[in-house]
Amino acid sequence: MELPIADVLAAPKNMTEKETFCRVAVVLRQVYMHHNCEETNRSLRKLDRNLNGMANKITCSVNEVRMSTLRDFLERLRRMMQQKYARG
C-alpha cells in the first residue's frame, strides 16, 4: 500500500522498546480507523492489539514530521520484530 503514515520507526534511538511499540500501535490505529478495506482493517487491528500488549498499556503521542508508506513501515516493523525474537 502506498498510504502515507507518520514514520515513528525513524524516531531517536533513546526511545524504549515499549515506547516504540506504543507509537507504532497509535499509527496503525490511525490508519485502520480511516481506511475502508475490511480485510486490511482486521489485520491492522490484530497487530495493534498485540503491540499494545507489548507496550503494557503506556500512553504515548505521535507527532512525527517524517512520513513513510504503510508498506515500508510494515516491512521495517517486520524486520524489527524478527531481530527482537532472534535475540530470544
CATH architecture: Up-down Bundle
The level 1 CATH classification is: Mainly Alpha
Strand arrangement in the largest pleated sheet:
1-2
Structural class: mainly alpha
InterPro entries: 4_helix_cytokine-like_core (IPR009079), IL-4 (IPR002354), IL-4/IL-13 (IPR001325)
Keywords: B-cell activation
Pfam family, one: IL4
GO molecular function: growth factor activity; interleukin-4 receptor binding
How is this structure best described in words?
The chain is mainly alpha-helical. It has one domain: Up-down Bundle (Growth Hormone, Chain: A), CATH 1.20.1250. Helix content is 59%, strand content 7%. It has three helices and two strands; from the N terminus they run E-H-H-E-H. It has a two-stranded antiparallel ribbon. Helix 1 runs antiparallel to helix 2. The protein is globular. The N and C termini lie far apart (31 Å). The model has no long low-confidence stretch (mean pLDDT 84).
